[in-house]
Specification:
single chain, alpha/beta
């Protein structure tokens, strides 16, 4: 894992509920906040390819007024990968087989290029028959407008703005806007607020 991916993992892991509130508000409203539980990371070995991957972020949540438990799998990705959908599908199979719970798979794509819409499904089958159609949520930052996130008052929004398309002339303004919002959050939350140096790193890379 690169330092960049590790930073995104740290950000989303620490502010998991805020992440859901930003991108999946209806789901976030249905979750009991005190029920969020970090699950042990899973190692997945590709016997044929010889690679071992680690599932990045796994949280178990409980829905309000229900006994229903759901797993949320979040996979930050800082580069375009042809086999990404297949890898996420294999993560899903591993988690479902182990826990027998519904799984919400989410891809957070932070690369600059390509800018065309990334896939949000993976199909297992052949020419005339699809055995499995695996759908997952895709958050592709290079296709989002930073202006829509500037006033969210959300620590995750402040960070991810750095990886959205920003004109070179506007970049100092966006950075100042994000850090100003973070300073306000820090004043409200005190020690629990995000580390501003982390956000400076994202904007300077």
């Amino acid at each position: 894992m690169t330092d960049h991916d590790a930073l995104f993992k740290s950000l989303i892991g620490e502010f998991f509920l805020e992440f859901l509130e930003l991108f999946f508000p209806e789901i976030a409203q249905d979750i009991e906040p005190d029920s969020i539980q970090e699950k042990e990371q899973e190692l997945l070995t590709d016997i044929i390819g010889g690679k071992t991957n680690r599932v990045d972020i796994i949280r178990q949540v409980r829905l309000k007024d229900e006994a229903t438990l759901v797993l949320v799998l979040v996979e930050p990705q800082s580069y375009d990968e042809k086999e990404f959908g297949e890898r996420l599908f294999r993560y899903f199979i591993r988690l479902y087989d182990k826990y027998r719970l519904p799984v919400l798979p989410v891809a957070v794509l932070s690369y600059e290029r390509p800018k065309h819409a990334a896939p949000n499904s993976y199909v297992v089958g052949f020419r005339h028959f699809s055995t499995v159609i695996f759908n997952y949520a895709t958050i592709q930052l290079n296709r989002l407008a930073w202006q829509e996130f500037a006033d969210k008052g959300n620590p995750v929004a402040c960070a991810l703005m750095a990886k959205m398309p920003v004109a070179k002339a506007d970049r100092p303004i966006v950075k100042l806007t994000a850090l100003d919002r973070l300073a306000g959050l820090k004043a409200k939350s005190g020690p629990a607020a995000p580390n501003i140096r982390f956000y400076r790193y994202l904007f300077d890379t």
